[in-house]
Amino acid sequence: MNELKNSKIGKNVMIHPQAHVEDNVEIGDNTKIGPFCLVRSGAKIGKNCNFTAYCEIRENVVIGDGTAFGSRCTISANATIGSDVTIKYGFVLTDTPNLKEGDRKVLGDIGDGVFIGANVTLMPGFSIGSNSIIGACSQVRHHVGENEIWYGSPARFYKKNS
User: Fold this and answer.
1) Which residues span the domain enclosing 6?
2) Could you say which of 52, 66, 100, 144 is the most buried, measured as most Cβ atoms within 10 Å of its Cβ?
């Protein structure tokens, strides 16, 4: 692993040789970064996290402890993901960049203990409350409250998560 300038890398961190981690990141103890993952500058990743393959964590993303990502997940810049979140493969947390200016709108957050199924898209400006579940192949276009189950495209409220 190359020396990462201005970075804090915890104990027992495993970064696959075919992953790319930029300078100025924080990665907590026992976190695994899989092949072809990209971690951009300013990202802060907690302890005991797992990123399988082809994940992109863009600039200034904050990810809590114990969070796991399946392959091909993209988290747009400035997003916050809670602790103990499970995100299956093919997840996209989108942003709305102003292509002429190069800046991005602030995104919604994902709370603690959330489970997100495969091939889900979280549209810009919406958030998912703690302990909620989002079904596979859903497109989230509304705020999801805590302890709720949503699914569909567009995603709709199904019931409370007991």
Assistant:
1) 1-162
2) 144
